[in-house]
């Protein structure tokens, strides 16, 4: 890690770490980020930053207007929500809320953006505006759309947008950004099977939804193995099966939950259609009613080339050229930051932190990389404000 990281940052690192750990200890799930939003808004207002709350229910927007007058607007986004899971690690700042846990590092992302706000609150010698977007509900895939539906683009127009996510699979002091696809699309799916229940000793008198579910799980594997071009990436996984309550009763209902991931919108549409076709065919075969629905959907996160290259240039000044990774495989995870990229150019980047992977029950954001994230965003924002591009 480069030791000169703090030299040009007007922030108190101890305060930033304390903020991050406070958010970690008080996690809130999607659209329930009331305390986190209040904390963010209070800090922004305390630093003299124009602050707007309630954007997309619990979202917060801060505007940092440069002292040199109007110009371009660069948006920086952080997600605030936690996961509905139990923390198994034992840090002193561990979650105080049962079944809720910052297992993906959004506490760190929020702290990074607060660090950017603190730095620029006293250093506004730039032209243009820096827009700070604190987004709710990334984990459920609804927060970005909620903010957009609440008029984010019309109320706070911007030219470009950037987001940062911790990357446990990259070492601390490293940084990653790709041109093009960074993350996969996401479609969660629910398959509801309704049959006719009965005694386990007389299956001929039933329409068994368990048998239908079992056959569906096998048949759905052909969506990828037999219906998708082998050169294209697609993943379809069934992660939950619910049916019945005891051993000798054939239930009347069964439910499957799964997830579909791709990098290509054509493949995505074909896979969803194929899932629907297989479910319809299985309904005929088993004489059960089968309904499939998709939810929690977001498109693939695809970086715009110019903005990805700009992010890489800014990262070189923070991490050194040898630690800026450009040639790596896109990730199968998904992000609703992709919804913003459908409207405005931008890039999604990765901040190396090491440790266990996101969503692991012992995950914790690496506080050592907080100043690196702040410095990256500060340098990137200044560089893009100075860039003579089109304005919104």
Notes on the protein architecture:
The chain is elongated and about 80 Å long. 32% of the residues lie in helices and 24% in strands. It starts with 12 loop residues before the first helix and ends in a 6-residue tail after the last helix. Helix 1 (13-25) runs antiparallel to helix 3 and helix 9 (305-319) packs across helix 11. Residues 1-6 have low confidence and may be disordered. It folds into two domains: 3-183 and 300-386, Aminopeptidase (3-Layer(aba) Sandwich); 186-298, Alpha-Beta Plaits. It has 392 residues and is an alpha/beta fold. Strands 1-2-4-3-5-16-6-15 form an eight-stranded mixed β-sheet, with helices on both faces. The chain has a four-stranded antiparallel β-sheet with strand order 10-12-8-13. The longest helix has 22 residues, at 265-286. The protein has helices at 13-25, 34-46, 106-121, 143-149, 152-155, 209-220, 222-225, 265-286, 305-319, 338-341, 370-386, and strands spanning 50-55, 59-65, 73-79, 129-135, 160-167, 175-176, 180-183, 186-194, 198-199, 234-243, 249-250, 253-262, 289-298, 301-303, 324-325, 346-352. The relative contact order is 0.20.
Shape type? elongated
Residue-averaged pLDDT = 95
User: What composes the largest sheet?
Assistant: 8 strands, mixed
Beta content? 15-25%
User: Percent helix among the residues?
Assistant: 25-40%
Count of all domains: 2
CATH architecture of the largest domain: 3-Layer(aba) Sandwich
Binding site for Mn(2+): 104, 106, 139, 165, 359
Keywords: Hydrolase, Manganese, Metal-binding
Protein name: Peptidase M20D, amidohydrolase
Family: Belongs to the peptidase M20 family.
């Amino acid at each position: 890690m480069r030791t000169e990281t703090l030299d040009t940052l007007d922030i108190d690192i101890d305060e930033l770490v304390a903020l991050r750990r406070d958010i970690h200890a008080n996690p809130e799930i999607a659209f329930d980020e009331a305390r986190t939003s209040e904390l963010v808004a209070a800090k922004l207002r305390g630093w003299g930053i124009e602050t707007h709350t309630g954007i997309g229910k619990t979202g917060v927007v801060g505007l940092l207007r440069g002292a040199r007058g109007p110009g371009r607007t660069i948006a920086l986004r952080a997600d605030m929500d936690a996961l509905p899971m139990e923390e198994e690690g034992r840090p002193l700042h561990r979650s105080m809320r049962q079944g809720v846990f910052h297992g993906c590092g959004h506490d760190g992302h929020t702290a990074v953006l607060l660090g950017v706000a603190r730095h620029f609150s006293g250093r506004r010698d730039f032209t243009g505006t820096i827009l700070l977007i604190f987004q709710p509900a990334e984990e459920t895939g609804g927060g970005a759309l909620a903010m957009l539906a609440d008029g984010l683009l019309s109320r706070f127009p911007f030219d470009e947008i950037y987001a940062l996510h911790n990357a446990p699979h990259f070492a601390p002091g490293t940084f990653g950004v790709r041109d093009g696809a960074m993350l996969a699309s996401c479609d969660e799916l629910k398959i509801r099977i309704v049959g006719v229940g009965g005694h386990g000793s007389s299956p001929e008198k039933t329409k068994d939804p368990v048998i239908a579910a079992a056959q569906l799980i096998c048949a759905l594997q052909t969506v990828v193995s037999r219906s998708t071009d082998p050169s294209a990436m697609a993943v379809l996984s069934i992660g939950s099966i619910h049916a019945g309550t005891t051993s000798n009763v054939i239930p009347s209902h069964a439910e499957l939950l799964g997830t579909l991931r791709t990098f290509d919108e054509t493949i995505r549409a074909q896979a969803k259609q194929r899932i629907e076709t297989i479910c319809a065919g299985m309904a005929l075969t088993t004489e059960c009613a089968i309904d499939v629905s998709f939810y929690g959907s977001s498109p693939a996160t695809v970086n715009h080339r110019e903005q990805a290259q700009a992010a890489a240039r800014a990262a070189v000044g923070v991490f050194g050229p040898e630690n800026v990774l450009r040639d790596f495989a896109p990730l199968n995870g998904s992000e609703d930051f992709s919804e913003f990229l459908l409207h405005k150019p931008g890039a999604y980047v990765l901040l190396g932190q090491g440790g266990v992977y996101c969503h692991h029950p012992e995950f914790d954001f690496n506080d050592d990389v907080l100043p690196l994230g702040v410095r990256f965003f500060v340098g990137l924002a200044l560089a893009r404000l100075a860039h003579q591009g089109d304005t919104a």
